[in-house]
Protein backbone atom coordinates (compact mmCIF):
# COMPACT_ATOMS: atom_id res chain seq x y z
CA UNK A 1 0.00 0.00 0.00
CA UNK A 2 1.41 3.42 -0.90
CA UNK A 3 2.36 5.92 1.78
CA UNK A 4 2.24 9.08 -0.30
CA UNK A 5 -1.13 10.84 -0.47
CA UNK A 6 -1.15 11.26 -4.26
CA UNK A 7 -0.21 7.60 -4.75
CA UNK A 8 -3.08 6.55 -2.46
CA UNK A 9 -5.45 8.64 -4.56
CA UNK A 10 -4.16 7.04 -7.78
CA UNK A 11 -4.89 3.59 -6.32
CA UNK A 12 -8.49 4.59 -5.54
CA UNK A 13 -8.99 6.21 -8.95
CA UNK A 14 -7.52 3.19 -10.74
CA UNK A 15 -9.83 0.81 -8.85
CA UNK A 16 -12.85 2.94 -9.77
CA UNK A 17 -11.89 3.17 -13.44
CA UNK A 18 -11.16 -0.57 -13.57
CA UNK A 19 -14.64 -1.30 -12.22
CA UNK A 20 -16.25 1.03 -14.80
CA UNK A 21 -14.27 -0.52 -17.66
CA UNK A 22 -15.15 -4.03 -16.48
CA UNK A 23 -18.87 -3.17 -16.38
CA UNK A 24 -18.79 -1.70 -19.90
CA UNK A 25 -16.84 -4.68 -21.27
CA UNK A 26 -19.21 -7.13 -19.58
CA UNK A 27 -22.30 -5.40 -21.00
CA UNK A 28 -20.68 -5.40 -24.45
CA UNK A 29 -19.93 -9.12 -24.28
CA UNK A 30 -23.50 -9.84 -23.18
CA UNK A 31 -24.90 -7.84 -26.10
CA UNK A 32 -22.63 -9.66 -28.55
CA UNK A 33 -23.66 -13.05 -27.14
CA UNK A 34 -27.35 -12.15 -27.52
CA UNK A 35 -26.83 -11.18 -31.16
CA UNK A 36 -24.77 -14.28 -31.98
CA UNK A 37 -27.33 -16.53 -30.25
CA UNK A 38 -30.08 -15.05 -32.43
CA UNK A 39 -27.96 -15.55 -35.56
CA UNK A 40 -27.08 -19.14 -34.63
CA UNK A 41 -30.74 -19.88 -33.92
CA UNK A 42 -31.60 -18.54 -37.38
CA UNK A 43 -33.99 -15.93 -35.95
CA UNK A 44 -33.65 -13.24 -38.62
CA UNK A 45 -36.12 -10.79 -37.05
CA UNK A 46 -34.49 -10.86 -33.61
CA UNK A 47 -31.00 -10.64 -35.11
CA UNK A 48 -32.04 -7.66 -37.25
CA UNK A 49 -33.41 -5.99 -34.12
CA UNK A 50 -30.30 -6.71 -32.04
CA UNK A 51 -27.78 -5.69 -34.71
CA UNK A 52 -28.15 -1.88 -34.27
CA UNK A 53 -27.98 -2.29 -30.48
CA UNK A 54 -24.81 -4.36 -30.78
CA UNK A 55 -23.19 -1.84 -33.15
CA UNK A 56 -24.13 0.96 -30.77
CA UNK A 57 -22.55 -0.92 -27.85
CA UNK A 58 -19.36 -1.42 -29.87
CA UNK A 59 -19.24 2.28 -30.77
CA UNK A 60 -19.76 3.19 -27.11
CA UNK A 61 -16.87 0.96 -26.09
CA UNK A 62 -14.66 2.69 -28.67
CA UNK A 63 -15.69 6.12 -27.37
CA UNK A 64 -14.79 5.09 -23.81
CA UNK A 65 -11.46 3.59 -24.88
CA UNK A 66 -12.37 -0.02 -24.12
CA UNK A 67 -11.87 -1.20 -27.72
CA UNK A 68 -9.71 0.09 -30.55
CA UNK A 69 -11.75 1.57 -33.41
CA UNK A 70 -10.35 -0.92 -35.93
CA UNK A 71 -11.23 -3.83 -33.66
CA UNK A 72 -14.81 -2.58 -33.34
CA UNK A 73 -15.02 -1.98 -37.09
CA UNK A 74 -13.83 -5.52 -37.74
CA UNK A 75 -16.47 -6.93 -35.37
CA UNK A 76 -19.22 -4.81 -36.97
CA UNK A 77 -18.26 -6.08 -40.42
CA UNK A 78 -18.34 -9.70 -39.23
CA UNK A 79 -21.73 -9.21 -37.58
CA UNK A 80 -23.14 -7.53 -40.70
CA UNK A 81 -21.92 -10.46 -42.76
CA UNK A 82 -23.55 -12.95 -40.37
CA UNK A 83 -26.82 -10.98 -40.49
CA UNK A 84 -26.74 -10.89 -44.30
CA UNK A 85 -26.12 -14.63 -44.46
CA UNK A 86 -29.49 -15.23 -42.74
CA UNK A 87 -31.34 -13.82 -45.76
Could you please describe the fold and organization of this structure?
14% of the residues are buried. This protein has one domain (5-85): Up-down Bundle (Methane Monooxygenase Hydroxylase, Chain G, domain 1), CATH 1.20.58. It has helices at 5-41, 44-63, 69-85. It contains 3 helices and no strands. It is mainly alpha-helical and 87 residues long.
Order of helices and strands: HHH
Task: Summarize the biggest pleated sheet.
Answer: none
Instruction: Please give the number of β-strands.
Output: 0
Helix content: over 70%
CATH topology-level name: Methane Monooxygenase Hydroxylase, Chain G, domain 1
pLDDT averaged over residues: 96
Amino acid sequence: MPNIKSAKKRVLVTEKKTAENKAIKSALKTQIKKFLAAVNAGDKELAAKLYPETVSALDGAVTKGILHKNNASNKKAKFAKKLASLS
